[in-house]
Amino acid sequence: MSSRTSPISQPITIRRAVARDAKRLTRLVRGSGAYEGKYAAAVAGYRVGPDYIEAHRAFVAVGADEHGGRVLGFYSLVLAPPELDLLFVADDVQGRGIGRLLVAHMQSEARAAGLDRVKVVSHLPAEGFYHRAGAVRIGTALANPPAVPWDRPEFEFRVSSE
């Protein structure tokens, strides 16, 4: 198994994002390999600011030991209307279960907030991930030029009441 697809061997902690995480989260978004080439313009000036973190339920996955407390990924859950607004995992740790961990955490947060569904408008290269993570395709979000000049798949996570 290559290091890109081997599971993380050290514990991962998911914690609420705080204002001081803003620059690291912005770097994750702007540096994402999924937004290279024709997709680069979509994140070129994107910023996850302290105000965004305070206004949304944003959580970060932090690696222990092996990654020295580094932010490995994050997500943001909007409650009204229920939507997974952002979900990013650092390129060099993708394929190791961090995205699935973040999705499971998001579903737990959604459940605690009384939600039964959470929509996500997927970036095209992430479509397979959302499908594998259990989201169901519900439609297509039409292009919104100039910000997003392509159609995107819409998914929905159904949140069980457990």
UniProtKB/TrEMBL annotation:
PROSITE patterns: GNAT. Residues 12-155 form the N-acetyltransferase domain. It holds the Pfam family Acetyltransf_1. It comes from the Bacteria. InterPro entries: Acetyltransferase_Butenolide (IPR053144), Acyl_CoA_acyltransferase (IPR016181), GNAT_dom (IPR000182). CDD domains: NAT_SF. This is GNAT superfamily N-acetyltransferase. It comes from Streptomyces africanus.
